[in-house]
Amino acid sequence: MSHVVVVGAGIGGLTAAYFAIKAGHSVTVLEASSRVGGAVQFQVVETSEGPLGADVGAEAYASRSRLVEELMKDLGLANRLVSPNPAGSWLYLPEIGAVPAPKLGMWGIPGDPHAAEVVAALGPEAAARAAQELDLPMDTWAKRRAAGESITVGELVADRFGPTVLERLVAPVVSGVHSADPYGIDIDTIAPGLIEKSIEYGSVAKAIAALRAAAPPGAAVKSLRGGMQKLVDALTAYVQTHGQLRLRSNVVALDARARTVHVEYGDLVQADHIVLALDAPTAHDVVSTITPFERPALLERPDYGAGVGLVMLALDSPALDAHPRGTGMLVSPSVTDVVAKAATHVTAKWGWARDVVTRLSQHRHIVRLSYGRITDPSDGSAPGYATPEDALSDIAFTDLATLFDLPEQYVLDNIVGADVARWRDAMPLTTPQNVQRIDAVRQAVEHFDWLHVTGAWFAGTGIAAITQHSSALSINRLQ
């Protein structure tokens, strides 16, 4: 039986530990902070009637993942699985304001350019241009794929559908979900296999329609009653029962000869395998402590994105009872009257959250607003991660009023609680240079058959992608 040391207790580290234990290994998890879960976090807003909580990190997972479903069952969480309100989300666009988001699409790319909601969002002229995509040859993109060239979301969408689709449908989604510039993110990162399918069908829209038609029935995402923190709690309990979890254990160095991790102000932990479930900048720092002649050269340290600030608001508002913006909104980067990049109407999206808040007040709602785009200046001057809490909350009050078409004074009079959460290490910078730096860390780690990496920076965004990566690691590498 091998001893596996997992460095980091985010969702990547916890799932890596879970699968390693299931494979028969002895496992020790070392976490630098005092909390587990990483980008899965449940936050409580205090109100006069009592505390209210909701996810302020990952709030769901892609339901197409059978592996996550099996994980949930094994951890005894199957009876907690829930689907979101099928009403869908909205977009907030320049000039026209709030409109329902197209129902058939992928990352904002329409699967039916003729759909009424696409025409409403684009206008007749831009919608007609988008519809031309159905008959445009894919020759250029087939040649680029054959040549192994990187294809960004921005260049593909602008060429195939026109710039208005990029600005009004795709940019709000890519910016809101990935905090990325469409021209700075590879299409394979968010939609693996789409280019190949588009070449097969002769159209990106046709490929998306086919992929959606072939998808299993039901919601595209699922969550857990009570929030995704329940998954973290269950994984933590499993690791503590069958392995060892040590908090406040900051790993600062590796000894390649002894296969040992050095814990700051602590001991040395020997392992047969070491899994770095860390963000790439921290993984870079740890890997760089290995004697230079024993590892490939690393590039410059990878960089974080600008970071994100999230404001969670609780308010009493009969005007929100009818869910006037569906489950929430994604905001076009081109708008000038709203600062937020996204707003989630939590109590409209998740029935369990609605049930909790209405026990306290009949018209109680929770809305979560997100701030910080990848295009923000690095000096922290744009509202987001670095903005003081009171200032960010004030911006959120104004944005909520605009997005939901409410008088600002009405919002201010009915707020009953607010809190701010901040994320930085969960957000990699998406420039080509940073992608190369991250890949250099991965290549350096692969130089050793006992050293491995996992987590969102290396597996991709989302609980399903991370879980799949951690599972493959335990099956193929931890021998």
TrEMBL record:
The keyword Cell membrane does not apply. It catalyses: coproporphyrinogen III + 3 O2 = coproporphyrin III + 3 H2O2. The keyword Phosphoprotein does not apply. Its EC number is 1.3.3.15. Pathway: Porphyrin-containing compound metabolism; protoheme biosynthesis. Its cofactor is FAD. Residues 11-322 form the Amine oxidase domain. It holds the Pfam family Amino_oxidase. Involved in coproporphyrin-dependent heme b biosynthesis. Catalyzes the oxidation of coproporphyrinogen III to coproporphyrin III. Belongs to the protoporphyrinogen/coproporphyrinogen oxidase family. Coproporphyrinogen III oxidase subfamily. This is Coproporphyrinogen III oxidase. It comes from Yaniella flava.
